[in-house]
Amino acid sequence: MLAALLGPLLLAGCVTRHREVLDEAELLAMRREYLVQAARENIAQIDRIVDRLKREHDEAKQVGRQAPAYDVLVISGGGDYGAFGAGLLKGWSGVDDAEWVKPEFDLVTGVSTGALIAPFAFVGDEETIGAVERIYQEPKDDWVLLRGLFFFMPGNPSLLNNDGLRREIDARVDEELIAKIAACADHGRACAVSATNLDFGIRRVWDLGYEAQSVREGRAKPDRIRAMLLASSAIPAAFPPVELDGHLYCDGAVTSNILYNANMRSTSSVLYRWQVRYPELRLPRIRFWVIINAQLEQVPRIVQPNWLDVTASATETIVRSATAQSIELLARELALIETTGLTNVEFRVASIPSDWRPPVEGIFKRETMESLARLGEEMGRAPRRTWHSGSPLPQQIGPAGEILEPTTAPNTGSIKR
Predict the structure, then answer these.
(1) Taking the model in full, what pTM does it have?
(2) Tens of pLDDT along 102-138?
(3) 92, 200, 260, 400: which one has the fewest Cβ atoms less than 10 Å from its Cβ?
(4) Dihedral of CA 105/109/114/116: which sign?
(5) 281 with 271: CB under 8 angstroms?
(6) How far is CA 52 from CA 48, 65, 73, 100, 412, in A?
(7) Residue 115: what are its φ and ψ, rounded to 5°?
(8) Cα dihedral 209, 215, 220, 223 sign
């Protein structure tokens, strides 16, 4: 009798739309076409950046001053901890120190929660930065909810229902913001976000500036940009994946928690394209600003031996470790570029201090997000103390139990190795 009652309920939890299954030959051909298209879009974006840099170089030369730096803002994933990055940008917006003033970024990249912040940071004016901080300070109770009584059933698209978060993105990423993004892209600036293509197991990067221009010109709908942001922030299993252009996407942090070109000397890099087009000119100074919406040293706690607690702890550890390694790789890549003499490089990182603690347990809690936003604002207003050069690796303990010196130091200029 009990089985007869529960059977339909359990089966209901397993009902999902079935996607057509293709054979391997078809999938390989699709993947090749997909990669070619992505490469074309990437080169087009890089060339727009190079055109902008050349214009700035020529304008500076006409008035006898040094060309401005090529400024890149990289915003990591981190879920509700994105409140830190939003607050940091708000506090930084009020700095008037000429050396540390928040620049107009040539390129903004974001992953996961960083992707949600990226379009606001890209526009970059005080009103828009204030708007994204308010989003993170005012989470709604229905942003994430358990998917009913049988949320754990394998046929469900996710454990949580994020319809509330989807509604928030629809409201905040409105046509006015999209028009501002398009206007910024008109000047050769770029805003990129990434998601993970689950069908092909690879990272996908989208140029939001180009997408916004497409919306303005009637070639695309605003919902396409919103879908990209949802895809980038779709935590596997927790949030439902997003289908776009026939492919299924989840959180960009699965492939990399920060978005940058891991080989900046490749044929698809700004450095290479500049050298090919202007071999007689030195590339302007490059400044990388990286906001890590996380603590790079895990807060110790006792993990209970159940699948939910173990999965949560293991996932956090995987992402945290991969993020630290990505930052180290980026630092080394930039240092290598500087040794070539082709340009000067500055590398600056800001992350949530290891001694900060959330005031309450749980995700998307107003008290925690307000605390992080305030912390970010305070740090943003003190950039000389906040931004560090090098890789902010966790504290290390020596063989005799001594605390080793940290690998980071306040940034005083270009990377020196």
Answers:
(1) 0.88
(2) 999 999 999 999 999 999 999 999 999 999 999 999 8
(3) 400
(4) positive
(5) no
(6) 6, 17, 17, 22, 27
(7) -70, -35
(8) positive
**What does the radius of gyration of the chain's CA atoms come to, in whole angstroms?**
22
Instruction: Give the residue among 220, 218, 184, 217 at the shortest CA–CA distance from 104.
Output: 184
Q: Which of 135, 242, 230, 224 is nearest to 178 (CA)?
A: 224
CA count, 13 A, side-chain hemisphere, 186: 10
Confidence tier at 356 by pLDDT (50, 70, 90): very high
> By the 8 A CB rule, do 347 and 416 touch?
no
| Residue owning tokens 């204030």 | 130
Burial group, residue 406, by CB count within 10 angstroms (0-12, 13-18, 19+): middle
Residues in the chain: 417
Cα(170)–Cα(157) distance, rounded to whole angstroms?
A: 21
pLDDT digits (tens, 9 = 90+) for 219-250: 999 999 999 999 999 988 778 899 999 999 99
Q: From 202, 227, 210, select the one nearest 107 (Cα to Cα).
A: 210
Rounded mean pLDDT, 339-367: 90
**Phi, psi (rounded to 5 degrees) for 159:** -75, -35
Please indicate whether residue 195 or residue 335 has the higher confidence score (pLDDT).
195
